[in-house]
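Hi V.,

Quick status before I head out on leave. The structure for the redesign project is tokenized and pasted below; the design run finished overnight.
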């Protein structure tokens, strides 16, 4: 059970697949548009409950409670080996006085 004021992650379906724009790629168009956000619970709740939260910037939104105390898991994808040495190669091409 999470308490009022706890930091949580919520999700909400904004558009069902059939409601999405015709201008989207087919693989995008065939899935719903889902909003994910974080905020402070405005009432006690359990995961799976429909909740109302206040976001860090003061917006009030609703959604399904999916995670308590969510962190930040930024991922820029897998390493691209060809780009790992660009900086070093450029410095070698420009010479020592460009460091």
């Amino acid at each position: 059970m999470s308490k009022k004021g706890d930091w949580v992650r919520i999700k909400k379906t904004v558009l069902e697949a059939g409601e999405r724009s015709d201008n989207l790629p087919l693989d995008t168009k065939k899935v719903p548009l889902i909003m994910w956000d974080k905020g402070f619970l405005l009432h006690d709740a359990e995961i799976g409950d429909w909740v109302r939260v206040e976001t860090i910037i003061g917006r009030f939104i609703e959604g399904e409670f999916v995670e308590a105390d969510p962190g930040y898991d930024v991922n820029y994808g897998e390493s691209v080996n060809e780009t790992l040495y660009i900086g070093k190669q450029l410095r070698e091409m420009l010479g020592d006085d460009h460091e």
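Above is the designed sequence. The beta strands are 7-15, 33-41, 50-54, 60-68.

G. will cover questions while I'm gone.

Best,
W.
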